[in-house]
Design brief:
263 residues, alpha+beta, 4-stranded antiparallel beta sheet, 10 helices, 12 strands, 32% helix, 27% strand, globular
Amino acid sequence: MLTIKNYLRPKTPQEAYDLVQKRSNVILGGMLWLKMQNRRVDTAIDLQDLGLSYIRQEEDGVHIGAMTSLRTLETSPILNELTQGAAAEAVKPIVGVQFRNCATVGGSLYGRFGFSDVLTLFLAWDAQVVLYGAGRMPLSQFVQIPRSRRDLLLEVIVSSQPVQASYQSQRNSATDFPVLACCVMKKDGVYRCCLGARPGAARCYEDETHILQGNLTEEKAETFARWVSEQAAFGSNMRGSEAYRRRLAETLVRRSLLALEEE
């Protein structure tokens, strides 16, 4: 059972940052995973008064506030136009609309969950995060920071340049966590492939050996997919074995590449 002693709604990022430095305090976010934990929380920190729910286009890219819901992400005309609908494809299998109306972008990324479709999408997108404390940095750098560091995630920033994108996942049932997730993006002729739910946190792979140079063919797609599956580290859990995930990776990467070619 979750027990909360105090509930506070800070008015400034500094106030929220100071509160979260105490390890018995916790940020609520959408409070979807937190409520299922068996723990005692000294102070629950609600960020809804900080104005962090937005998707807006600025000079340096598209800014997405940490309190933006996954449903808003799913239905955003800006993000789906930039990704050819891949942003919606990444989040729409997550439980259901009611869940996605509550779950936040910040909570999905800050947790760095292995099963996170949201993390897989934004890593492939080469996103940056803005942290109160550590400042602005690539998301790929943020996921390597020890969890003991307690910065406050304010927003995510992605390029406003359109990309070719495809999101594929394999699930044992429609709203279950993914057995494996795959997002492939192509920008300025460069392919970037990200695998999530390995079951570890998502990791990205680029065409280091230039397999995909020139016109994309089915043979090239198969060769690159095989290379990625060989490079990636996989594990086993209740949803699938290491061997199954490795085989799935080859299939999902190939499908994603060919989907880009069709588009």
